[in-house]
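[INFO] parsing input record for HTH-like domain-containing protein
[DEBUG] input buffer:
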Amino acid sequence: MPAAEIQSRALRKIWSAAENLSDSGTTRHSVRLLCQLFDEYAWRSCAKSKRQRDNELLTGQLKQCWLESGGIYGYRKLHRDLRDLGEQCDINRVHRLMQRAGLRAQVSYRKPRAPSCEQHVVTPNRLERQFDPLAPNTAWVTDITYIKTHGGFSFNC
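[DEBUG] output buffer:
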């Protein structure tokens, strides 16, 4: 049923009710009050738009991805997850839908570290940037890389 026909049917009901009320000697009522009395808003009868249906589907996918992350991911990472799933949507739309659904990222802050009072051992630079050793096993160089993971830090030497 087209929206125009639904609106005209609703208006006819409202006007006939208004005529009945005015004939019975009651005071005039506003159209808004009559709409509320008879619960005849035309938009309630109309089907949802394509955008509304897409938003509902996208919100469901957002909730699923958010729960899979343990409630940690924010709109940026969820947008990336949706793109990986093949969904085409803007990052601002993801942010807006998350706000409407009440999904919030878990924000973690780093604790400030107090300076340590212990003295660190500083070894002398024996290579002096001479990286061509004269014999094997006379000079060794190493590096430690800190990798942040969900379980803490991993160290790569």
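[INFO] The two ends are 70 Å apart (CA to CA).
[INFO] shutting down worker
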